[in-house]
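Sync notes, pocket subgroup
Present: LS, DG
LS reminded everyone that the earlier model was apo-only. Rerun requested with 2-acetamido-2-deoxy-beta-D-glucopyranose included. Inputs:
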Amino acid sequence: MWRKASAAALLALAVGYFYHGSPDLPEQLLQYVGLPSLRASPQSDGSLEQVISAAWETLITLPTRQWSKVAVGVNACVDVVVSGVGLLQAMAVDPGAGLDHEVLHSKEDLKESFIHYMERGAAAERFFSDPEAFQRIARAAAEYPGAKLYVGGNAALIGQKLASYPDLMVLLCGPVGPKLHEMLDEQIVVPPESLQETDEFHLILEYKAGEKWGSTQAPQANRFIFSHDVSNGAMSSLETFVASLDEFEPDLVVLSGLHMMEGQGRELWEERLKEVSGSELFGLTPQKSYYTSWVISKKKNLSASSAFIDVYNLCYCSERFLPALSRQAVSAISDIHKDIPIHLELASMTDRDYMNSLMQEQVMPIVSSIGLNEQELLFLSQAGEGPHSELAAWKGVPDVGRVSDILLWILEQHGRSDPSSEADLTRIHFHTLAYHILATVDGYWGNQAAAVMAGARVASTQACGLRSVDPSKVEVKAPLEFHSSHGEPREKLTLNPAAPVTAWRRGNVTFHLTVVLVCKQPLRTVGLGDAISAEGLVYSELKTPQPF
Ligand SMILES: *[C@@H]1O[C@H](CO)[C@@H](O)[C@H](O)[C@H]1NC(C)=O
Ligand SMILES: *[C@@H]1O[C@H](CO)[C@@H](O)[C@H](O)[C@H]1NC(C)=O
């Protein structure tokens, strides 16, 4: 107890110390800050990476008030990682010419698309439309010698990470088949409605740099991913999720994998939507209408969310396709908002249209917290014509000043930076390879320094496949000097390796930045964003909002 308190005091001191920009930093630290070229030379007190890693160990402490029950939804699956060429050969497929297909309908389509991407060394993800053919391929893949099976799906990965904290009860809603159930942490509760007879498999066909098949040669290692998600692509998991909340009574809800409803199921949805001509809501995709109604019901303060039922029925309620929506689910949706903070993980939403719809349907204001990476951050800015939306893409390490501008814009335009705003959004956890920023509206969150460091630490350890940071296997890739904004007025900031969180304020928002000790030879980067956000949430504390 005493230990924890003193560590917390040390953290407060360390951060406060740096916050106020003390001029007399110990000389050895100034060397690190001012002369990054010294990094490589051996130091008596250890390398830059050693100093940061040691500082993390002392400064990362759990908040006083922790979550006790977290509900996570909505996607889950089993990832099967297998040699692409090996599997196709085992399925008696001959090599040939490559051809990209938007949707895979057969083994032939799979082969052609796989070759198309393999000869480019590019990553791709596709939906396989034929359920029987997919099941046959999935079985062959799972049984293929050397195939590796992992827990997959953003929500399941977040659940697994949260379940590594023994005092935390985790409810996971998503399609859980027998194989996945067996692989999940024992501490994870799966509601009976989420259990299914068959697993949803994601097949990840790997190839190595220089690997050959027929006349095709891969210029670099990469993976081709395909799946036939029924539940992940449908709304059923979200309904089950919302229905389970009543009984579970979580103090935090984490939504991730909503993008699954978009990509894979798009064809089906669009087909279904064609049947609903004449509706003013024609053209809405299911998740959009879900959110539309969510927003309408919130705005209009509808007790039974009749808005939801209207939109739902009009757009895609078809007995053949979706189970009927229960009234309980509807009222539970309203309940989520009133008391429980919601974190929405946007990681890997690579679809710009979907980002646009998130912005247009004003999803941002109805969640309390979001997690995203540099790509999604830029998409959001482009969708809403925010700062630096003229950038086509980031070049190298995203500029801290620009990232800070966009984060501030999101919290001011779509968040609760102004206390008179009705928006709930008060927290953004931004993660990119080289550094992380936790931006919070003042007065709503505590323990941000520890939270942002904890997220960075898990990025280092998980990528290297280790339990703790090994300073010899990681490197700092972010500049230790940066600016609080891209334009004027701006503050010049530095990161102190011995207290590796730099904090600054703009308006009513405080930013906490730490660098990532980037794994030099990453083993597995799937689900890294999910782990970072999960860890950041565990170390975050929601303050009782101040009345204004
Ligand atoms: C919303 O509805 C509830 C009861 O259904 C009521 O107590 C509350 O005051 C309403 N809020 C607003 C802002 O109208
Ligand atoms: C910051 O908060 C104050 C009240 O505490 C409010 O008057 C002001 O408008 C807010 N600023 C922004 C940029 O939202």
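DG: The CA atoms of residues 119 and 218 lie 5 Å apart.
LS: The two ends are 34 Å apart (CA to CA).
Action: DG to write up.
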